[in-house]
Amino acid sequence: MATVRGDVKDLSLAGVGKQRIQWAERDMPVLRAIRERFEAEQPLKGKRMSACLHVTAETANLARTLKAGGADLLLCASNPLSTQDDVAASLVQDYGIPTYAIKGEDENSYYRHITAALRHAPHVTMDDGADLVSAMIFIVLDRMDDVHAEVRKWAETLKPDERKSLVANVAASMEETTTGVIRLRAMEKDGVLKLPVIAVNDAQTKHFFDNRYGTGQSTIDGVIRATDTLIAGRRAVVCGYGWCGKGVASRARGMGANVIVTEIDPIRALEAAMDGFLVMPIAEAAKVGDLFITVTGNIHVIRAEHFAVMRDGAMICNSGHFNVELALDDLAEISVSQKKGVREFVDEYVLKNGNRLYVLGEGRVINLAAAHGHPASVMDMSFAAQALATEWSVKHKGKLEHKVHQVPKQVDEFVAKLKLETMGISIDTLTAEQDKYLRSWEMGT
């Protein structure tokens, strides 16, 4: 195989990575069926794609599917701690996919890799968190002060028409995360979103399952791998009761934790209460919790005043996409000492009163920082929706408004039906009489 460009930790890890990719594929039958069709039909032929995603074994199978469909794909990491180095090595060596991702990469490397994705001049982009699209928009708007220095060095060499072509040539961008969709809708509201975006995160086959069951299981997995602690009997505080929060709270309770939920939304707070969880403000929960998990997608959910009243030995982590939910600068400021790496993925902070607080995974997304992310079976649906939404956006290039679009209903339903088939589950269909009844209005009681 010809040498493929990229930047990974160690190509000698490829053998282990390939095994992991192939193991994940066994539990991704929907995506496998799509890959077989893509290989035959080549719906993405001649299209350059740049994907800024968590580089995991499951993502690798999405990448293989896109390449099978004819895409000229380049992959970079969407989080400095979420890369599986052996998978990245295999993508380059075994599958010929340029990959720029190293677990633990510093900020400059992270943005140098995003620059590689931009230089690829994509016709379609994919994001976990909207960092790639945000960089494109800042460049097109000539807001160079808002662009990281590594990106700016390259962007400043471009002529004005070359900057505009960064988005003008893009059929659409796929966004996989709640955090990213929030950012993109804010761009749309401010009138700066210069390309169509498909909110793959909002597909029912994504957030009902990936966010709830995937995040729920993998977050608890990350906590246990990082700490080797018993969940049963602990007071677990889950900040946020969206789909991810629902999953985390449910899984923590299932392992015997006494779960407390904090929320700002009265509807979600009411739902959490009626689901049987204690609900209280974070200021109160901070005094009694043993384990804190943020899943809000917002900034500084746990701050200095909350850290200051936490119990000795409290463990704190984040399962939102960006490392902004924990105000770690606040924690550092009120601590008398910090000790990095008391255990892999665990940092100790000692407060003035002697209480020790433990931050897991540097406050980054814990299920990928300390564990392997979502199980393949749930990512099968999310990535199937990604692949099909990509195909749909290419077919509709030039016809989509510059706004955030929902995944077409037919894509969602196709993924769900195929998933049921692979699980050996059959469902009912409407009779002719039932179908007529649902489409009419004349018949009453």
UniProtKB/TrEMBL annotation:
Please name the PROSITE patterns in this protein's record: ADOHCYASE_1, ADOHCYASE_2
Which reaction(s) does its UniProt entry say it catalyses?
Answer: S-adenosyl-L-homocysteine + H2O = L-homocysteine + adenosine
Q: Which GO molecular-function terms appear in the entry?
A: adenosylhomocysteinase activity
Tell me which EC number(s) this protein carries. Answer: 3.13.2.1
Q: Which organism is it from?
A: Paludisphaera borealis
Q: Name one GO biological process term.
A: one-carbon metabolic process
Q: What does this gene product do?
A: May play a key role in the regulation of the intracellular concentration of adenosylhomocysteine.
Q: Output this protein's name.
A: Adenosylhomocysteinase
Coarse class of the protein's main subcellular location: cytoplasm
